[in-house]
């Protein structure tokens, strides 16, 4: 059986398997060497599984998601919150993920850096116009400019909260030898922006803090006209400690590679040898598409056979 130097995110397991260990077994049979636990996994789903029988590359916070991402966002229990008590709740959530990563020997926690509270309808309208083929219209440009201005007006205070939170989390993770990986995000109002990533990575060295490069997120924001995809790589390739690999059709992501428009040959030239590779596929991808995606990634130099 062929084994690939890739992890499979539990994103694909959502409502697809009666028990989580069935997903672990399926991932191994398809050739994945490791698993990344994502933010849809709670303590009850992990209970009773002999976790030492499997290898984990990383834990994507908040995991265990005993407080769901939806609740965390709704209450602003995020590391970016200007409200101190809310910020502390966000920090506590990520500390639970650090604890789990340490227990599993995973070594890396993939971290979201929070968000900036702006009118979400602005980006929703922008994406709707893109899907309608109106990305070059005057209306599109006007909404985009409003979104840029709204984000800029509130970014400073939120970024200071992220800095404070990150310093606390780095100290905590350091006790266990766990590294934090900051992920580039899918939404423009999320943190970090292209420039903010450099600021945050400057808070600690690569042995403690790195960049988790999400291919699909970079592609989608490029298509919307915000940050050029390759700029993330040109600026921060030396800080990449992991990558989320998935394809994009238009601005819809998490497809198996080969189904969309991402230039994986370009991606491969930037990935450090020691960075983990996680296939982060939504459940609509079939088993056959997952297997084909693995072969596609090998052919384009993003992963290799062990």
How many domains? 1
Write out the strand line-up for the largest beta sheet, numbering strands in chain order: 1-2-3-4-5-6-7-10
- CATH architecture term: Alpha-Beta Barrel
CATH topology: TIM Barrel
Portion in strands: 15-25%
Structural class: alpha/beta
CATH top level is: Alpha Beta
The tally of beta strands, per DSSP, is: 10
What's the overall average pLDDT, rounded? Answer: 97
Distance between the termini: 10 Å
Shape: globular
CATH homology superfamily: Divalent-metal-dependent TIM barrel enzymes
Spans of at least 5 consecutive residues whose pLDDT stays below 50 are none
What proportion of the residues is helical, as a percent range?
40-55%
Q: Order of SSEs, N→C?
A: EHEHEHHEHHEHEHHEEEHEH
The biggest sheet amounts to: 8 strands, parallel, barrel
The DSSP helix count reads 11
CA-atom Rg in angstroms: 19 Å
Can you give a write-up of this model?
This protein has 306 residues and is an alpha/beta fold. It has a single domain, classed as Divalent-metal-dependent TIM barrel enzymes (TIM Barrel). It is built from eleven helices and ten strands. The strands form two sheets. An eight-stranded parallel beta barrel has the order 1-2-3-4-5-6-7-10, surrounded by six helices. It has a two-stranded antiparallel sheet with strand order 8-9. The relative contact order is 0.14.
Key descriptive features of the protein:
306 residues, alpha/beta, TIM Barrel, two-stranded antiparallel sheet, 11 helices, globular
């Amino acid at each position: 059986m062929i084994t690939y130097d890739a992890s499979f995110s539990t994103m694909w397991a959502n409502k697809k398997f009666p028990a989580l260990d069935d997903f672990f077994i399926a991932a191994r049979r398809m050739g994945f060497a490791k698993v990344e636990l994502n933010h849809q996994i709670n303590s009850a789903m992990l209970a009773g599984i002999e976790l030492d029988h499997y290898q984990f590359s990383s834990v994507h916070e908040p995991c265990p998601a005993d407080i769901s991402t939806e609740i965390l966002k709704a209450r602003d229990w995020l590391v970016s919150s200007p409200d101190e008590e809310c910020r502390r709740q966000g920090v506590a959530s990520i500390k639970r993920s650090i604890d789990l990563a340490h227990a599993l020997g995973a070594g890396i926690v993939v971290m979201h850096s929070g968000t900036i509270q702006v009118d979400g309808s602005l980006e929703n309208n922008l994406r709707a116009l893109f899907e309608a083929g109106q990305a070059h219209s005057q209306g599109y440009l006007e909404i985009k400019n409003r979104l840029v201005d709204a984000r800029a007006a509130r970014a400073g205070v939120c970024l200071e909260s992220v800095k404070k939170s990150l310093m606390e989390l780095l100290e905590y993770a350091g006790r266990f030898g766990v590294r934090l990986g900051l992920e580039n995000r899918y939404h423009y109002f999320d943190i970090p922006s292209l420039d903010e990533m450099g600021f945050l990575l400057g808070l600690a060295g690569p042995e403690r803090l790195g960049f988790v490069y999400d291919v699909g997120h970079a592609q989608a924001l490029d298509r919307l006209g915000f940050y050029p995809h390759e700029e993330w790589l040109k600026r921060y390739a030396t800080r990449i400690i992991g990558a989320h690999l998935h394809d994009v059709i238009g601005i819809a992501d998490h497809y198996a590679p080969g189904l969309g428009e991402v230039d994986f040959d370009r991606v491969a030239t930037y990935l450090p040898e020691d960075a983990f590779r996680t296939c982060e596929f939504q459940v609509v991808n079939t088993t056959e598409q997952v297997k084909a995606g693995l072969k596609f990634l090998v052919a384009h130099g993003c992963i290799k056979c062990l």
